[in-house]
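Newbie here. two chains, one complex. Structure please?
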Amino acid sequence: MTREHQTDAALDALLAEAGSDMPDDALMARVLADADAVQAQTQAVAPAPRVALRGNWLTAMVEMVGGWGALGGVTAAGVTGLAVGLYAPDTVGVWIGSDTLGQEASLSYDLSPDISALWLEDDDV
Amino acid sequence: MAGQGGSDLDALDDGALMVLFANGDPGAARLLTERLLPRAFRHAARVLGDRAEAEDLAQEAMLRLWKAAADWRADGEAKPATWLHKVVANLAIDRIRRSGRSVELGDDDFADAAPGVEARLQDDDRMGALDRALATLPERQRQAVVLRHIEGLSNPEIAEALGIGVEAVESLTARGKRALKSALEGQKEALGYDT
């Protein structure tokens, strides 16, 4: 092998060796710490993710109102309101007939619907 | 957000990993670091000839990469590796010029500088010898040689990284390697052979 070829081969070997030069672990750790910081900053300013409407329409609706727990609360409140609407007016008559409002007992109104006819047959239960 | 499994990410190219990184995947950050940091470090080390300074520059270049991830398009033409080499090249030139150690030789001036370089190479280790020889090359020629013969970039990729034409890259790499060989000629210890 001539000296020219030896030089070429040696230079190629030296360049290949330079191509395998690696940074140390400390630099790798610093770069990953930078990556973590940038990711944390990016995630902090990102808009809140939209509720994904996945699964069937019922699941999607439930997720939109906050899940099954929230839906149970809404249902309970609705049932309570209905019960109050049906039966609480009885108490209005009590208040009107009492001295609380200073009215005569004859002004008492029966605001509750009489639904006993629904379960009476020939005046028998 | 939990990262995806390593085997899943390994199959993805760097552009896709950039998008995953922007979405908060820590696995993407680690894989991109493993793939790209060595490139940035070697590029900086060979151009600057100073390992500690190269580490600082590589970290700065990677930080810019992380910050660019939010706007990265996975289907875009830019490759993260080429983009990173471009950043390293510009940062390295800035540092060299700021420090005042730029030796902006003309391409034909190298022969005059070589003898002095040869004398300094005698007692250096192999990488040190290479760095000193590279340091005698003009900036762009040095960068082109490093990117072509050490990092293995294609001529169009080097052209993009250095902001020059492909023909200029061909000329720079050819003349650069000849100059490098000339600088190392006779450096038996550096080149690892006896005559």
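Moderator note: The mean pLDDT of chain A is 73. The two ends of chain A are 121 Å apart (CA to CA). Thread marked as resolved.
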